[in-house]
Amino acid sequence: MDTLMGLLDEMYELGAEAVKIIGGEPLLYPELVSNAVKHARGMGMYVSLETNGT
């Protein structure tokens, strides 16, 4: 999880304004996704999530 938060920090520092969470089924990892969304939103980034609905 620290690696993901560090990546989000680096993206923000490089000027990223948005994050899109996709791939596989992100909702299989609810705690990780929730923490990532909170972290990104806390920096003012727009967050979108794409799920296959399973």
Textual characterization of the structure:
It contains 2 helices and 2 strands. With 54 residues, the protein is an alpha+beta fold. The chain has a two-stranded parallel ribbon. β1 (18-21), α2 (30-42) and β2 (46-49) form a beta-alpha-beta unit. α1 packs parallel to α2. The mean pLDDT is 94.
Question: How would you briefly describe this protein structure?
Answer:
The protein is an alpha+beta fold and 54 residues long. It has helices at 2-13, 30-42, and strands spanning 18-21, 46-49. The protein starts with a helix and ends in a 5-residue tail after the last strand.
Task: Give the key terms.
54 residues; alpha+beta; two-stranded parallel ribbon; 2 helices; 15% strand; globular
| Fraction in helix | 40-55%
> What is the overall silhouette?
globular
Q: From the helix content, strand content and strand pairing, which structural class follows?
A: alpha+beta
Radius of gyration: 11 Å
Low-confidence stretches: none
Q: Helical stretch count?
A: 2
Q: Enumerate the strands of the largest sheet in spatial order, edge to edge or round the barrel.
A: 1-2
Task: Count all strands and give the number.
Answer: 2
Strand content: 5-15%
**Gap from first CA to last CA:** 23 Å
Number of structural domains: 1
Largest sheet: 2 strands, parallel
Succession of helices and strands: HEHE
Mean pLDDT value: 94
Q: Secondary structure elements and their pairing?
A:
Blueprint: H1 2-13, E1 18-21, H2 30-42, E2 46-49
